[in-house]
Amino acid sequence: ISYVFIVENTGNVTLTNIQVQDVLPGLMLTGGPIAQLLPGEIDSTTFTATYIITQEDLDTGSVTNSASVSSEAPRGDLNDPSDDIVDTSDDPNDSSNEDPNGDGDPDDPTVTLVNSIYDLEVSKEVDELEPVVGDEVTFTIEVANIGNVTATDIVISEQIPSGYVYVNHIATNGNISYSDITGEWTITQLDPDQVEILQVTVEVLGFGDYLNIAYVQSSVGGNDVNIGNDEDSAEVDPICLTIYNEFSPDGDGVNETFVIDCLERFPDNKLEVYNRWGNMVYSTRGYLNDWSGTTNGRAVVKDSDNLPAGTYYYVLDLGDGSDPRVGWLYINRKN
């Protein structure tokens, strides 16, 4: 900011040794003193000043500045400032005409608006677009201050949708907190050009909402000039209805049941299992991935006994009007 100081002798006596003072921190004042001003005379060239806008000014949105002028009174003592004539500057473009010192002259400060830009930007991505149900994926959320105004008390909404289960999270800075309960990510302060990152790891479920949205819920610092970049989203498309057609129900806790991904999406499903002779050995409605190779079908073996190791054939009707899925499965028993 460049300042010009217009000094006018509004009295009817000659003024001498005229000095301008401006105590705005960081301001560079040059020129002076003015040796003499006759009554009615104006000086607008002797004193000038420059000021470099600070981050505090950008955060405030303006720079407020007042200067003062003093001169030696007629027949005054050069070594005695108490007899000097003094006045506070007035901004001629401000019609408020404030007079805090009560001398009858307006003393409006000069207020210069600065180009303050308040703009937060949210971006989000996921590391795997087509995960298998049960896999873990990580969402990375970045919040950047792309304006020139300091932002504080930022709250980002990062609610985990119903298609995931929270596992853990990490963040880039110790002044950041995230709660998977409230879905709020809090950033204490974000300086211009600063970026903070949150990574949330979740497990993919076989059903639910997979669209994960992050957005600026609230912040302090100004009115965002571009709300269009305050929100971003990422979504996965799980690989579903994968039929794991080999399992080993031998009691070791590993691969104990016949599993079909995403079957939770089809609660009206019906599963039938047949042996190699075409006899039904197992049938159920609303299958929940819990069959461990026992029979409830025709009496090919004793009811509720374990089926022997071997190849079987399944018919899966999803109950949604689509054609049944047909295939083979293998039961492997070690004992």
Write the layout of secondary structure elements.
Layout: E1 2-4, E2 7-8, E3 15-21, E4 28-30, E5 34-37, E6 42-43, E7 48-50, H1 55-60, E8 62-65, E9 68-72, E10 85-88, E11 110-113, E12 120-126, E13 136-145, E14 151-158, E15 164-171, E16 176-179, E17 184-190, E18 195-204, E19 211-220, E20 231-235, E21 243-244, E22 246-247, E23 259-260, E24 270-274, E25 280-285, E26 310-317, E27 325-331
Parallel strand pairs: 22-27
Antiparallel strand pairs: 1-7, 2-6, 3-5, 3-9, 4-7, 8-11, 9-10, 12-13, 13-18, 14-17, 14-19, 15-18, 16-17, 19-20, 21-23, 24-25, 24-26, 26-27
What does the radius of gyration come to?
A: 39 Å
Strand residue content: 35-45%
Q: What are the low-pLDDT stretches, counting only 5+ consecutive residues below 50?
A: none
The CATH homologous superfamily of the largest domain is named ntegrin, alpha v. Chain A, domain 4
Strands of the largest sheet, in order across it? 16-17-14-19-20
Average pLDDT, rounded to a whole number, is 91
What is the C-level CATH assignment of the largest domain? Mainly Beta
Per DSSP E runs of 2 or more residues, the count of β-strands stands at 27
Structure annotation, total helices: 1
- What general form does the structure show? rod-shaped
Task: Assign the CATH topology of the largest domain.
Answer: Immunoglobulin-like
**Largest sheet at a glance?**
5 strands, antiparallel
Q: How many domains make up the 3D coordinates? A: 3
Element pattern in H and E: EEEEEEEHEEEEEEEEEEEEEEEEEEEE
Structural class: mainly beta
The CATH architecture of the largest domain comes to: Sandwich
What proportion of the residues is helical, as a percent range? Answer: under 10%
